[in-house]
Amino acid sequence: MTRRFLFVLGSARAEGNSELLARRAAEQLPPEVEQEWIDLTELPLPDFEDLRHDSDHVRPTEGNVARLLDATLAATDIVIVSPLYWYSVSAQTKRYLDHWSGWLRTPGLDFKATLAGRTLWGVTALAHTQEVVADPLVGSLHNSAAYLGMRFGGVLLGNGSKPGDVLTDTAALTRAKTFFTQEAPLARFLYEQ
Description:
The longest helix has 14 residues, at 91-104. By secondary structure, this protein is an alpha/beta fold. It contains 6 helices and 5 strands, in the order βαβαβααβαβα.
């Protein structure tokens, strides 16, 4: 299967530091690797409604939810691009991940089986010099990948607060050059390691 990267942009700011860092990393992908970039501010999702005890979820056939579902299912690699907001992903990103819960429970979709073996990545910028503050974000993505039987490529971290700051983080830019070339292991729940 040809690799197809889906970059899910979850920042409230266009061309924010997380996106700039993700684009630097994506520049290193071979030209035959397909890339799709979806900005969640331009493709807003409704709040997720949990129906698991009331009725089955129905596969969306139109609108933003359907577009994101189709793009997610078509991707071999899903890259969550979100700034660190209150030690986790942005609200837009969390809403996208919440919809995964419904897709898991949509009859005939086989969401979990489809994503199993594919790779989840993260790219985030934080306005803190101690990268350990991003551990909750990393853990959320890592455990999500483990639950779905996905591979986890890790999270590319960069430092930046003001627009463009991450472009002065030479260590992050160096890591970006090889970030997507690493072999991503099958994710295991963090508490099992």
